[in-house]
Amino acid sequence: LPTTLEVLDLSNNDLKSLNLFLPALRELYLSGNKIQSLPSGWLLPNLQILTIQSNTLNMFGHSDLQSYERLQNLQAGQNKFVCSCEFVPFLQSEIKGGDVELTDGGESYICDSPLYLQEKPVGQVHLSVVDCHRVLFVSVSCGVALFVAILLCILLWRLHVPWYLKMTCAWLKAKRNSRRRQRCREREGLESLLSFDAFVSYSEQDASWVENFLVPELEEPRDNDEESVNHRPLTLCLHKRDFLPGHWIVDNIMSAMERSRRTIFVLSENFVQSDWCRYELDFSHFWLFDGNAGGEAILILLEPLSKDDIPKRFCKLHKLMSSTTYLEWPQEEEKTGEFWRSLRKALRGEEEDY
C-alpha cells in the first residue's frame, strides 16, 4: 500500500492483525474482522479516526490510546470485552469524557466475561473490593480472623473456658467408668468398698511433710498413746504409693475418692502453683464437691494462705474455706499434739457414720 494513503477500509476481511506503516493515514476502518488488539499507534502517527467494531478485541487501556498521537474518534464496541478491574474503570472514565471520543456510545461496550457480568454494559458494571482486590481481601480477612481468634482465645482463657471443657470431658468419662463401681457398691455395701480413711491430695514439694509427719502420725500405732490403743490406725491413700500405674489419672483420682471416707487437701503455695495439684483440685471441684465422693473435705494449711491465692473459679472451695474450720499446721512444736488430735477426731468422726 502507498505510504501516502489517507483513508483505508479493510472491514469484513477476516483479518487477525494489521502491521502496516502508513504515516499519512487519517481514517482506518477494521470492523468485522478477528483482530484481538488495537493496531500499534507508532505505525499510524497521523490516525484520527479508528473503527474496530465486531472483532475479537477483549480489552484495551490508556497506554494503547496514548500511542496514537492524533486519534480523536474511536469506535470499538460489539467486541468480547473482559470486564476486569483494570478495564472497567478505564472505559467508564473514557465514556464520561476522555481524550479520545467513543463515537459509537457506551451502550455498545458489553461484557463477555466473567460469566456473572455477561451481556451487561460496561458503563453499568460496579465491581466490589472483593472482585478487584481478592488477594488483599483474603489477606486482610485472614489477618482479621486470626486477630479475632487470638482475642477469643485470650477471652476464653481468662474466663477459664478450656478448664471447664477439660473438666467436663474428664468428669463425663470418669462418670461412665464409675457406673460399674456404683453397681458393685450397691451389691456389696458401701463399707466393703471403703479401703481408706482419707485420700490425701498434696504438692510433690510438700511430700516430705506428708511422708515424715502425716503418714507416721496417722498410720503407725503408738504403744504409749491411749488414743492409739482405743482406735485402730488410720489408712491413707497417697497417689505416689496407691495409684495404679498405667491407669488414667482421672480414674485414679476418682477411684481414690470413692474408696476413701474423707479427702484431705494439704494446701500451700506449692499446692496452688502446681499444675498437678491444680488438676487434682480441678477434678475434685467437679467430683468431690458435687457430692459424689465420701464425706466433706478436710483442709490442712501448711502455711498462711489467703483465699485469694486459690483460683477464683473454685467458688465452692472458696465458700468451704469461708464456712468450714480448717486445720493450720502450727509453727510451735508444742501445739502439734492438739493439731493431730483435731485431725484424728475429724477423720474418725466421719468413720463413725459408717
From TrEMBL:
<keyword id="KW-0732">Signal</keyword>
<dbReference type="Pfam" id="PF12799">
    <property type="entry name" value="LRR_4"/>
</dbReference>
<keyword id="KW-0325">Glycoprotein</keyword>
<keyword id="KW-0399">Innate immunity</keyword>
<dbReference type="InterPro" id="IPR032675">
    <property type="entry name" value="LRR_dom_sf"/>
</dbReference>
<keyword id="KW-1133">Transmembrane helix</keyword>
<protein>
    <submittedName>
        <fullName>Toll-like receptor 2</fullName>
    </submittedName>
</protein>
<dbReference type="GO" id="GO:0045087">
    <property type="term" value="P:innate immune response"/>
</dbReference>
<keyword id="KW-0520">NAD</keyword>
<keyword id="KW-0391">Immunity</keyword>
<dbReference type="InterPro" id="IPR000157">
    <property type="entry name" value="TIR_dom"/>
</dbReference>
<dbReference type="InterPro" id="IPR001611">
    <property type="entry name" value="Leu-rich_rpt"/>
</dbReference>
<dbReference type="InterPro" id="IPR003591">
    <property type="entry name" value="Leu-rich_rpt_typical-subtyp"/>
</dbReference>
<dbReference type="GO" id="GO:0043235">
    <property type="term" value="C:receptor complex"/>
</dbReference>
<keyword id="KW-0472">Membrane</keyword>
<dbReference type="GO" id="GO:0002224">
    <property type="term" value="P:toll-like receptor signaling pathway"/>
</dbReference>
<dbReference type="GO" id="GO:0005886">
    <property type="term" value="C:plasma membrane"/>
</dbReference>
<feature type="transmembrane region" description="Helical">
    <location>
        <begin position="135"/>
        <end position="157"/>
    </location>
</feature>
<keyword id="KW-0812">Transmembrane</keyword>
<dbReference type="GO" id="GO:0038023">
    <property type="term" value="F:signaling receptor activity"/>
</dbReference>
<dbReference type="GO" id="GO:0042497">
    <property type="term" value="F:triacyl lipopeptide binding"/>
</dbReference>
<keyword id="KW-0675">Receptor</keyword>
<dbReference type="InterPro" id="IPR035897">
    <property type="entry name" value="Toll_tir_struct_dom_sf"/>
</dbReference>
<feature type="domain" description="TIR">
    <location>
        <begin position="194"/>
        <end position="347"/>
    </location>
</feature>
<dbReference type="GO" id="GO:0006954">
    <property type="term" value="P:inflammatory response"/>
</dbReference>
<keyword id="KW-0677">Repeat</keyword>
<comment type="similarity">
    <text>Belongs to the Toll-like receptor family.</text>
</comment>
<dbReference type="Pfam" id="PF01582">
    <property type="entry name" value="TIR"/>
</dbReference>
<dbReference type="InterPro" id="IPR025875">
    <property type="entry name" value="Leu-rich_rpt_4"/>
</dbReference>
<keyword id="KW-0395">Inflammatory response</keyword>
<keyword id="KW-0433">Leucine-rich repeat</keyword>
